[in-house]
Specification:
398 residues; alpha/beta; 12 strands
């Protein structure tokens, strides 16, 4: 989000400084600069850190405007009342935030749709960007390119320079654990950049030395026709870089896997979640778990045959899950033989369907902070042991 806001402000000839704590923590004295605005993107686990940064900023810039955006302010705006925040931006608010800053700079004071003062406690419908090409193209420095890494090992002899791209936004899935903590976009409706826009964005990354693409889409490959068009065009343009994506079992079959392998796909990050039919149904992953599990076995086996690596994304500690269900997941993992494995704990975050059911009926007001349990639910010694067992038996298997 912040890269799009940065690009929009630069397009309006407004100077800005982007600080991404993924790359480094806030350097000493950074907030002693005199600034007119602070835009801070917050996820729930980082909310205390964000509030501390805002308080530090306020010590030196008491009259500046502070805008909070991202997953946590969108889901619980009332939490930010009285904490030094002036405005809350809801959802995909990149364009709205840039417009607000332009308005305030010009003295017009107009507040765009999707933005409210921080005194509000009511949730509003998050903004979504329907025409993704209206978003300005993010600009990266060579330092940023070298800092944004992918930490799983890939089977390459060359030194990799990663470029992150977002082709689509939205996901029509109904997984009860899904939240903006894990997602890059809002809403169920799928939206796509134009092919021309994606080609231009990828070419600019290649010019910075990028030699591997990471598609960060929440649901890559749902619309096969537009993805075929993209990779065919990239091949014509000489931009047929190796790439990886995050996708779902239902989006994959022999035909599309052959196409991906033929267009330089090197890794599929697949959110398979569980080997238990009961759990898959309960968490909203699928209404047909038997066919889902059969397809899962086929996808991993055929990907391996085609030479594409796979990352199995598993989840344990789901509501009502028994030890037998987790062992079913372990058996599925050993059956399908993915290249890599990641095991997460089921966690109730703000904005997830599970959290809405428990604390948030009707989406009318922001519940108290204590209502949000963004630590893994039911994480216990026994769950940790099962997770360790699954990792050890997978990664230490010759």
């Amino acid at each position: 989000m912040l890269k799009y806001i940065e690009a929009g402000l630069k397009k309006s000839a407004l100077s800005c400084l982007l600080l991404d704590e993924y790359l480094h923590t806030a350097p000493p004295g950074i907030f002693q600069r005199q600034s007119d605005f602070l835009v801070i993107s917050v996820m729930t686990p980082d909310a205390p850190r964000a509030i501390a940064l805002i308080h530090e900023f306020r010590k030196h810039s008491q009259t500046a405007t502070v805008i909070a955006c991202g997953q946590d302010p969108t889901c619980r705006p009332g939490f930010y009342s009285g904490k030094g925040v002036d405005f809350i931006a809801f959802g995909e608010a990149e364009l709205a935030i840039a417009e607000l800053i332009r308005n305030l700079t010009a003295g017009s004071g107009g507040i765009p749709a999707g933005i409210r003062t921080a005194e509000t406690v009511k949730l509003i419908e998050p903004l979504t960007v329907n025409n993704l090409d209206l978003l300005p193209t993010p600009e990266y420095s060579e330092t940023e390119i070298s800092g944004y890494r992918f930490y799983y090992p890939l089977n390459f002899a060359a030194r990799l320079s990663y470029g992150h791209v977002l082709f689509s936004r939205g996901c029509p899935g109904n997984c009860i654990f899904c939240t903006q903590i894990h997602r890059e976009s809002w809403g169920k409706v799928m939206r796509y950049h134009s092919i021309d826009r994606m080609v231009a964005e990828i070419r600019s990354l290649v010019n910075l030395g990028v030699n591997f693409l990471l598609f960060d889409d929440d649901n890559f490959g749902l619309d096969r026709s537009i993805h075929r068009e993209l990779f065919q065009r990239l091949k014509i343009e000489g931009l047929n870089l190796p790439w990886q994506c995050h996708t779902r079992v239902e989006n994959l079959d022999d035909e599309i896997l052959r196409f991906y392998a033929g267009h330089n796909c090197r890794l599929l990050r697949i959110g398979a979640e569980s080997g238990s039919a009961k759990v898959l149904r309960d968490i909203g992953k699928t209404s047909s778990p038997k066919s889902y599990l059969n397809q899962c076995r086929r996808v991993f086996a055929f990907s391996r045959k085609l030479g594409m690596d796979t990352l199995f994304l598993a989840m344990i500690g789901c509501p009502g899950e028994r030890t037998a269900d987790m062992l079913a997941t372990a058996r599925l993992i050993h059956k399908v033989k993915p290249s890599l494995l990641q095991i997460s704990f089921f966690t109730v975050y703000p904005n997830s369907v599970r959290n809405d059911e428990q604390h948030h009926p009707g989406r009318t007001a922001s519940p108290p902070a204590s209502a949000f349990h963004y630590r893994p639910q039911g994480k216990s010694f026994s769950l940790s042991v099962i997770q360790a067992f699954m990792y050890l038996t997978f990664y230490l298997n010759p």
